[in-house]
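Appendix B: complex inputs.
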Amino acid sequence: MKKIALVTLAILAAHATAFAQGRGRGGAPAPPQTAKAAAPIDVTGYWVSVVTEDWRYRMVTPAKGDYQGVPMTPEARKIADAWDPAKEEASGEVCKSYGAPAILRVPGRLHLTWQDDQTLRMDTDAGKQTRVFHFGNWKPASGGPHTIQGDSVAVWEGGGRGATDGAMKVTTTNLKAGFLRKNGVPYGEDTSLTEYYELIAMPDGAPLLVVTISTTDPMYLRQPFVITSQFKKEPTDAKWHPTDCSATW
Amino acid sequence: MTRKTIFVLALALAAAPAFAEIDLSGSWQAINHEDALERGAGPNPDDWAGLPFNESGRAKALSFSQSIISMPERTCWFQTQWHIAAGPFSLRMWAVPDPITGKVQAWMIGAWETRAPMTIWMDGRPHPSKNAPHDQTGFTTGVWNGNELIATTTHLKSGYIRRNGAASSDQATITTHFRRHGDLLTLTLIMDDPVYLTEPYILTRSYNLATNPVAIGGPPCIVGDEGVESGRVPHYLPGKNPFVDEMTKRYGIPPAAAMGGAETMYPEYREKIKAAFKRPEKCTINCG
Amino acid sequence: MKRLSAVLLSLAFFGALSIRAAEPDGGLDVVKVRKNFYMIAGAGGNIGVQIGSDGIVLVNTGTAAASDQVLATLKKLTDLPTRYIINADAGAEFVGGNEKLARAGYTIFTNALGGGGNALPNGGGASILSHDSVLRVMSTGKTPYPSGAWPNEAFFTPRKAIRMNDEGIEILYQPAAHSSADSFVLFRASDVVVTGDVMDTTRFPMIDLANGGSIQGEIDALNRLIDLTIAPTPFIYKDVGTYVVPGHGRVCEQMEVVDYRDMVVLVRDNIADLMKQGKTLEQIKAARPALPYETRYGSQSGPWTTNAFVEAVYKSLQAKKS
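Resulting structure:
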């Protein structure tokens, strides 16, 4: 029994040592990696929407009353049924359907870059929007204004050891009210968003960016609204085509 | 080998870094928030917008008559594995261990209604020869990429990409990527069909882990008389499909867009159809 | 427990299915269709192989050039000799190996007239059985085959039946289909039908007008083939149905035959409609009546192109009219 216990301890110690060695032989632990250095996947670059789902809600503006699939509350339906595109246009608030919960459904291009080692920036050509994903200990200012893109906190999940299954999880709050769809399907100021950004390999090896988006709105959604958008990588900005927001198209 | 030796060995193995595989087993409730109509009641007639058709694929779809499923030979013509993407149903998944080694030999996705059970072989076996029969379930192998399961299905029978005549051929390959985040499962399905498509067609679907078990089981099927006599093949002659302008009538979408093609998947196509698109005042059908 | 047993059973079944195809054997692909039935692909037309205690029954023999490979492949499957060759098609890709494979086989009439090879039918080799139409094609015409390749048992009736390896085998003549010399060979217990080029999963059916083929006969043959097969109803997910060994291409079930038949009917209907509109053959070709299936079955070059198929259908419909 004593022999077994000794052998067991030896095995456990060996693994503990190996683990510790991975972090530096004795002494102070190495400083944590920056988000950029620790990224298990590379989401930077230019990406173009591939619109194979919900086509008539995305490539064109759907008619008033066309809400298939959205788990709306009665309050949401009341607001959507009152949608007046001409009024929206006249009000000047034409970017309501380009907010964080909806922007990845707008057909267009994304440009992701590292703003600094802890901050990933996303620009869109459709609607000329910018989202900023903060890694690390960043927290949104309490009581700060609600904006179209809100405040986003990001973490890396998974990946490493040669696998490409890592993901960027982004949580967004402090959103200004907007539209989940251009025909007035609303989301409110208490909306929060959880997204997973992942890379999938196409059959020819090219990367596909797949973003799973879960929108929670206690006022206007009966349950989290979960959709997924996909994007193909483009080698350059040759097709980058900035367009203004539109309330009608 | 003594019991003590076995214990020590087991400990050594347990302390070794584990391969990054995750548990996909459980009942996964489908979240039908996107493509709700297409997955549920079925797509609108002649709505192939966003499908990267080649001209044969389009011609095949235009020849399609819904009466074809009333043919006695096709009454029990069930769906291919693509129905995971094209249908509304939930999934039940479980692992099947090798009875000798205990390693996962296969992952199963239970059958439901018109879709056969799917066996994802994890033991490295090769796909059958090109001359082997294609059965209802196809043939699927899987590999792990960290925590991502990648399943490749070949040897499919002919079927549908969409249940309005957009066909998939027996030469198609489906690659399914399984990604799990807690209780959320996302599947990315990629159909590569050189017979009908100019490029791979991608759909993504999400599921919530459910505590209520998802029912599984393919129902038996008996051929009944649905009014199409044996030997008759319902179809539309070229130029005679009566639904080519259905998407225009219902939603103002130009006919050319409804006819599909790879360009209809990309943002620049919006500029092409902007002038021709006439948004109806109000939704009148399939509004949700 | 029941469900677990069902799962394990299905895993075993699909596991067996998945291992059925051996590595290509010197260019030939052997597919195990049933416990005692194989398909050899790659020797020209597909060859059906039934093996049992009586010996081997072959349906078709591939090309002459592939005979040595076929013999070597058969040897790997069994040491038993070939006793019968059945020809379901008179094309060179189906009868080219007749002579060599028959000679390598052994007649069932071993006690006929006592000793001496000369007294035994077909020189002591395996018997070659077919409908008379195959014998006529092989023995007449511009370049007849050597007599050693001819069927030595020819029948004139629509149906012939024998029993080998403890199962009934029916040879069912199909007149004026892809040619005038087509038969289906149904193995009752194995639940396998071997077809010849009435069914070809690699291309549009080759309607050999010069040798008695016709579009309506081809459709009638496919309809009959559908009737001969049984789909795996009611338990769609548990069972497989009747297997079909086509002239070329993979092993099929009833649904593939239905797909193929539907294709032929649709293209025929498209061409018939254009003819009704008064279009010429060149106008019909330009209209691409086979477009829905061009990428699956068509070809722009080789021995059988899309246009050749369209033309054959056109001429067959014209002949039907007059």
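The longest strand of chain A covers residues 192-201.
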